[in-house]
Amino acid sequence: MEQIRNGKFIEKENMPSNEHVIKWVNEMAAMCKPDKIQWLNGSEKEEKELVKEALRVGDLIELNQKKMPGCYLHRSALNDVARTEELTFICTENKEDAGPTNNWMAPKEAYEKLSGIFNGSMRERTMYVVPFLMGPKGSMFCKVGAQLTDSVYVALNMKKMTRMGKIAWEELGNTNNFTRCLHSKSDLDIKRRFICHFPEDNAVWSVGSGYGGNALLGKKCLALRIASFLGKKEGWLAEHMLIMGVKTPENETYYIAAAFPSACGKTNLAMLIPPDSMPGWEVWTVGDDIAWIHIGKDGRLYAVNPEAGFFGVVPGTSMKTNPNAMKTLQSNTIFTNVVLKEDGTVWWEGCGEERPKKAIDWRGEIWQSDSMEKGAHPNSRFTAHVSQCPSASAEWDNPNGVPISAIVFGGRRAKVAPLIYESFDWQHGTFIGATMASEKTAAAEGKVGEIRHDPMAMLPFCGYHMGDYFKHWLEMGKNLHKQPKIFHVNWFRTDNNGNFLWPGFRENLRVIKWIIQRVKEEVDANKTAIGYVPHAKDMHMGGINLTENNIEELLSIDKEEWNEEVKKQEEFFKKFGDKMPKEILEEHAGLKERLN
Ligand code: OXD
Ligand code: MN
After folding, report:
1. Residue 1: its pLDDT value, please?
2. Is there an atom of ligand 1 within 6 Å of 328 CB?
3. Which of 92, 361, 414, 464 has the fewest CB atoms within 10 Å distance of its CB?
């Protein structure tokens, strides 16, 4: 150890020789003033020591190691339970570049304001230097990041969520090409909480939160907001999409990338177990949240999962809804904000087990059996490495990515959107993505249930002007020799009594089957005003209890509802002014015309 300026110590062990890194870490340390700097190497031994430290400072609670080896519970601060979109900023020199859907702050103002909060924020704490890779090592997709954080919980999550450790310094070599991620919990005061992105500097500063999406900076901050900006510049796409491999009984595997807003079942779909009535089908998980998509040499789209782990929503996860996730989280998992049972195991609403008589809720309080409050926070999470998942695809770490045959957009809509429809072509598919709308969920602060437009499920994650983003999508399509087909699904349609019409979960594979049949051009479809809709006869319906009426209703298009939808789209588009590509406006006009 060597003494640094203000009388503190810096550990030299694991320090890379890269001068850009060392200079940056020294500058940030001078501002944050940690007691100690610890450079992480990503080893298992180190992880064990970090767990010990997390237990010592109370960031983790040990769960029953016999029943759940390597599992721990974390409780976040009560005011820090979801992404805070209203405190998330894109800090570009020109306000216009951030666009109308992002909060904007001038970089100079942001650096000054946040420096004031970071100043001394790590006193009496350790600053962990967390090097990480997003994307497979040695791949054209791969990006290097380094996160400085004073949260051992964050450091441990980063170990599960990314390829963390020396591997990242090796990839970086002596270059300066890495995303500088600075994070401090500071005092967790929401008035002093900011998540600022500086795409032009390839940097993220996040202060005042210790919660997942705000604090694990590799995920939404780097892999979506910064990466989408880089993707625009470099000719690729960073998307809020799961990637799944679907093997047919004929032994062919098709890869599908699917975008859904947060907490709409991406993890469930990515880990789906086929229904009994579909023997020979298999689903393999490449990723459950983010896809980086490039054009390959053959002119097709290829995708990788930049992450190496899951930060999955826990409530509602059960052996019935997602057995693979349940098996994933039996060991080596960090739980955030779930119920702690007397036997040192965990519980949550919808886990399929009876509510415990005596337990401690996510707030850390005794949870009486008659309490009306939820025991687990609706946005409680599990963090586990991909390798834990029984359905992890052999291709999940393939440096070349997987070829994408279909893109799926999905929203949570009680009405309007049918179970499935297909776009006429790439341009129309881009329009369908751009007009996605969904009910709000607990993954972000705000009113749950409200409908909001969420283009490509990227509204909270696009690091630049969304008008330019739509244009980038259109350009990407033009550069493809073979465009994947684009679909829209809605698992959440209800009847007039508010009951879901579609059973969802594993039965969703029936819809995926139709998608693959369309890709293979095996079935034709109904050409409607909104796109191609399946003939009811082509939907595999064996083994579920749906009447023909139900199926008709699921696939039906109500002109009045759609006319209303078109008006709302028009309102939404006004936001983008003349940045809205004319092709999208043409598609909108075309839809309007077809409806009438
Ligand atoms: C997530 C989210 O955590 O979308 O994946 O909020
Ligand atoms: Mn997500």
Report:
1. 47
2. no
3. 414
Helix axes 466-478, 426-434, angle to 10 degrees: 160
Measured between its terminal Cα atoms, the distance across the chain in Å is 75
Task: Please report the pLDDT score of residue 456 as a whole number.
Answer: 98
Share of the chain above pLDDT 90, in %: 91
User: Does the beta carbon of 289 lie inside 6 Å of ligand 1?
Assistant: yes
**d(Cα 245, Cα 12) in Å, to the nearest integer?**
43
Measured in Å, residue 204 CA sits from the centre of ligand 1 at 18
Which of 461, 415, 409 lies closest to 435, judged by CA? 409
- pLDDT value at 464 more than 80: yes
Nearest CA to ligand 1 atom 2: 262
Give the dihedral of Cα atoms 445, 448, 452, 458; nearest 10 deg.
50
Dump pLDDT digits (tens) for 87-111: 999 999 999 999 999 999 999 999 9
Structure letter (DSSP) for residue 102: S
Is residue 498 predicted with pLDDT exceeding 50?
Answer: yes
Q: pTM of the predicted model, to two decimals?
A: 0.96
The dihedral through the CA atoms of 252, 253, 257, 262 has a sign that is positive
Catalytic positions, written as ranges: 264
Residue recorded with tokens 């749950």:
448
DSSP 291-338: EEEEE-TTSSEEEE---SEEEEE-TT--TTT-HHHHHHTTSS-EEES-
Higher pLDDT, 13 or 489: 489
Separation of alpha carbons 487 and 532, rounded Å: 9
Please, are residues 536 and 556 in contact by the beta-carbon 8 Å criterion? no
Pocket of ligand 1 contains residue 443 by CB under 6 Å: yes
